[in-house]
C-alpha cells in the first residue's frame, strides 16, 4: 500500500510525504521540487559517486518508521549537492527540507 500526504513546514511551505508499505519494511520519503529526505534505504554513496552528474539533493535519516519521525530525525548522511545548499548532517529533516525549497 502507498500513502501520499501533504506536510506543512513551519515556514508555511507544503512538501509531499510518501510511505510505501513493503513486506517487512516501509520506505519513507519527503520531497520538494529540488530534493528529498528519505529513510535508511537511501544509498547516499551511490548518489554521490555513481550518479554525481545528476546533482541530486538528498538526505538520509536512519531508524525512522513514520513520516513524522523522518521530519524530526537528524540526518545521518547527505549528498554533496545538499551540502552545497547549507544542509548538514545532524540537521533535522524538516530544517533540511526548508533549505530545499
UniProtKB/TrEMBL annotation:
Entries under SUPFAM superfamilies matching the protein: Hypothetical protein Ta1206
Annotated InterPro entries: DUF1805, YunC_sf
Pfam families xrefs: DUF1805
Protein name: YunC family protein
The organism of origin for this protein: Paenibacillus aurantiacus
Amino acid at each position: 500500500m502507498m500513502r501520499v500526504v501533504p506536510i506543512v513546514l513551519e515556514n508555511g511551505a507544503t512538501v509531499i510525504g510518501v510511505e510505501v508499505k513493503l513486506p517487512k519494511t516501509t520506505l519513507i520519503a519527503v520531497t520538494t521540487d529540488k530534493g528529498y529526505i528519505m529513510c535508511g534505504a537511501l544509498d547516499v554513496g551511490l548518489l554521490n559517486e555513481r550518479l554525481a552528474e545528476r546533482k541530486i539533493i538528498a538526505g538520509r535519516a536512519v531508524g525512522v518508521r513514520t513520516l513524522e519521525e523522518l521530519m524530526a530525525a537528524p540526518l545521518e548522511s547527505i549528498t554533496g549537492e545538499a551540502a552545497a545548499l547549507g544542509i548538514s548532517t545532524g540537521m533535522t529533516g524538516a530544517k533540511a527540507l526548508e533549505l530545499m525549497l
